[in-house]
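Subject: Exopolyphosphatase

B.,
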Amino acid sequence: MPNNMLAAIDLGSNSFHMMVARVVDGRLQVVDRLKERVRLAEGMDDFKNLSEEAMKRGLDCLALFAERMQSIHPDDIRITGTYTLRVARNAQQFVERAKQLLGHPIEIISGLEEARLIYQGVSHTQHTQGRMLVIDIGGGSTEVIIGEKYLPMALTSRKMGCVTFSKEFFSNGKSSEKNFNAAILEALHQLEPILTQFTSLSWHQCLGSSGTIKTVKELLLAAGGDGLITLAGLEHLKQQMIQQKYIAELDLPGLTDDRRPVIAAGVAIMIALFQGLGIEHMEYSDGALREGILYEFASRQEQHDIREQTAKGLADMYHLDTLQANRVKNTALSLFDSVATSWQLPPDQMRPLLSWAGALHEVGLVINFSAIQRHSSYILQNSDLPGFNQEEQQALAALVRFHRKAIKAYEFTPIPNYEDQAVWRTIRLLRIAVALHHRRMDNILPHIAIRVSDDIMTLILPRNWTESNKLLMQNLEREQKYLKAMLWELQLEVVD
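Prediction pasted inline below.
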């Protein structure tokens, strides 16, 4: 099974995104997502010039993306710039600097092309019935599309976004009724030219696909909602923000720090959309521009231990990336062999489990990359695994459940016949192996020595390697924080 990697990079007005996926049997399997909030539109002045500070934020982000791009063939990468890079007078200056950094061309796409790709992303990732209305609220523009199945029927891109509207209507820092009314009125004015066409087409389902819409959904869920976005829910959020008076002090359950500065403008735009288009309710969709780009790429390409056989059969069934699985597995086993004696890890019990966990930790990609550790654990816990007893199956699921992200120890259930300490220490080895192979490349790891003492783990890393692999070092530094929360220490010792 080929492991063709495709990448889409979206240079948005608020955030830069990178998505990496594989093509498996004609469909996409997301293997990585990177996101940095760069606030590009925020750095555009009244004369539509990008500030040096805003450009530097963008270039710093792209320097990290450049590392990740090294493992992907240039023909399989597409980089697109949207609203801010469409309208900024000095956009070309930024684009040239970015091209030098990335060694890859950057396409500035039109609003209609952006809308078309967004629709492709949503229609390929969402189970839909009948005609649908798709809305994406970005930092500088809002795309509105009506289509059926994979065919868009009406497309538009309006010059209203959560960042630009924040600057225009909420620049005094107040979430006042006056500011809301002005923003809603302008959004309705922007929508007026397309209302007749769009309302005449009708639709069966409305889907929203942006960070703004995801945030609104989460705010309404935190307030006791059912996951659907309604005009009544939006009006309720608006009144809450008006009562709290100042945007910097907004305190709504589910509101993150990075969304706080732009949420009022986002809600105002959504209210105008609901009012103008007569939307009854909206659902959130994960699919968006990046998925649309990748689906277009995809359309152009078309031992005797029974437990070992079971693991291999599972990997084949779910079309796992065996190259990546072997990288993680082999590194994890190498680390295990180095510390098994010091950490008193029973090799006959824990080493095979670590091997299978490394081989199968990405089985949850068949469901979704987001929360893959949960999906993988669920599949392993609930599948028929010939040759595995219940305890082995439970231990395997536990290793995979905690292989990434923050560790929620309260979700761990002690496993009969297994020492908790041995399980947790083996989990730590798997986590390090996964972090080290984040770039999914062969021959990039130097010899990494490891030593352990109680709950202190030290990785000895060559200095020249750390300096040329800053993204990987960031992953390890993030892992330090995750482990510290469990009162475990990960030391990174850099040597010449």
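The radius of gyration is 24 Å.

T.
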